[in-house]
TrEMBL record, chains A, B:
Signal peptide: none
Organism of provenance: Halogranum rubrum
Lipid metabolism keyword on record: no
A Pfam family of this chain: IclR_C
Record SUPFAM superfamilies: GAF domain-like (SSF55781), Winged helix' DNA-binding domain (SSF46785)
Name of the protein described by the UniProt record: Transcriptional regulator, IclR family
Domain IclR-ED: 78-262
Keyword rRNA-binding applies: no
Residue span(s) of domain HTH iclR-type: 18-77
Length: 263, 263
DNA sequence: AATAAAATTCACTAATACGAAACAACTATG
DNA sequence: CATAGTTGTTTCGTATTAGTGAATTTTATT
């Protein structure tokens, strides 16, 4: 696995941020990767002293952000508590879940609702159909926005200069040999998406994974997110995605948009 | 709504914790309750200066724990990212979801998988059946352990002195007029639960809500959590819970325990 | 356009987070 | 069973830095 700098926790030395908090983030980050770790291990990983790491962990523990069994520290469920709360704050979340469920049932594949946050695409809800789980993309997972169908669907709704800004900030990193990595290719793709009304992901994030996505916008043209259906390339043929499946998603998105407008 | 001190974020003045981190927690806590807030509002709420709150928010923002639109600060999806990751670390999570789904489908009600963390019961997974959502208990939500069927199911599996310790630490706060609030009543109830093999919640956490729960233990007697079915009292009759539904959950739990033992 | 309010930046200082080392608790090993 | 070797926890002095309050910039309001 290449390090694309995903868990951005480099300490910044300008005086505009709290260093101690950043150190906590670093500890959390390391703990996330390791699932379970001890004080010494984390001290080595972060470059902090054992005593300091201990203090951080003790504080995080008091806030339920970290658990400790014996000498094994883990991340706690407070993150889920807050995360689920944040997720439930978006309007129409129950409706969104219902629609996803319909989609998952009708297609038998995985249906996802994705939003963007900063420059990333984040999967907020996920329902899997009968065909079972073809994972990648668990809830909460953050993707580079140009790697995913949902991401491209959202980008296509954004003004060109905003897309440009995202490119300038985050670049166009590759995930597979199919990933779009040049500006011109991306803008061409977004034009196509805009014309079609849906975006397709042809193994651009994971080899063997296909997906279609349709953007969701409210009456004020705000991008709320995107619905997507994803599955293994051997089950989901390209023509299916372009026809039946994109139609299904469109129908769901339209119904959702209508319902949201009346509330 | 009474303040039971749920979001425990009182600053402790012993030198064993990081004060600046605790202040961040306080800000996060306030932000969670308000959904959206500005610097001044948070400064007033926490008693910190505007400048300081700003610095905290800037740092949290850099870590994707907070988002800012215009002058509106909100909690970010990083919490969901980490939370979902923590949740997925528990063994057999896919199996658990499958079983919940079966249960939700068979009963038409809401099926939940709950674990304990520290003295609380936390809903980790949740599947809703056709009868629709009778909410309370979204994913990640933390309950006082004696308020819920799942909590009582887990307590019944714990050694008496550990239960005692929890009571001593957290007390037996009331949520409704049915909540068990005395030690003797609780221990009696746990005896009953142990004999029956399931726990019932008769409007002990929310008026009009009934639930049954069965504990899940592994081959080493470790308590992994509990499965529960919950729904409105008018749909779920007491006899149903004691008979058909508790049997259904038992079957699922047994299958799950078996599967977990072989891995 | 003018005024008000809120967010951000700045400089200074008191608070405190950090590191190093001592101490305690637990593991492994002979 | 004793001893050496880890690992976690606590203590303490000090350098760092987090916080305050005011100045400055930005955004909203009249």
């Amino acid at each position: 696995m290449e390090n694309t700098g995903d868990n951005g926790c480099e300490a910044s030395d300008d005086g505009r941020t709290l260093k101690s908090l950043e150190r906590s983030f670093a500890i959390i980050s390391e703990l996330k990767e390791r699932e379970v770790a001890g004080v010494t291990e984390l001290a080595n990983a972060t470059g902090l002293s054992k005593g300091s790491v201990h203090k951080h962990l003790a504080t995080l523990r008091a806030g339920d952000f970290v658990t400790k069994d014996d000498r094994a520290y883990r991340l706690g469920l407070r993150f889920l508590d807050i995360g689920a709360d944040v997720r439930n704050q978006i309007e129409g979340n129950t409706l969104i879940q219902e629609k996803l469920r319909e989609l998952a049932e009708e297609t038998g594949e995985t249906a996802q609702f994705t939003v963007r946050e900063h420059g990333r695409a984040v999967v907020l809800y996920r329902e899997t159909g009968m065909q079972g789980v073809f994972s990648k993309g668990r809830v909460g997972k953050r993707f580079h926005i140009h790697h995913t169908a949902a991401g491209k669907a959202m980008l296509a709704q954004m003004p060109r200069e905003e897309v440009q800004r995202l490119i300038d900030t985050y670049g166009l990193t590759a995930a597979t040999e199919n990933t779009i990595t040049t500006e011109t290719a991306l803008f061409d793709e977004l034009d196509k998406v805009r014309k079609q009304g849906f975006a397709i992901n042809e193994s651009e994030s994971t080899r063997g994974l296909r997906a279609v996505a349709v953007p969701i916008v409210d009456s004020d043209e705000n991008i709320l997110g995107a619905f997507a259906i994803a599955g293994p390339a051997h089950r989901l043929k390209h023509e299916q995605l372009e026809n039946e499946i994109s139609d299904l998603i469109h129908r769901s998105v339209n119904e959702l948009e209508l319902n949201l407008a009346h509330s």
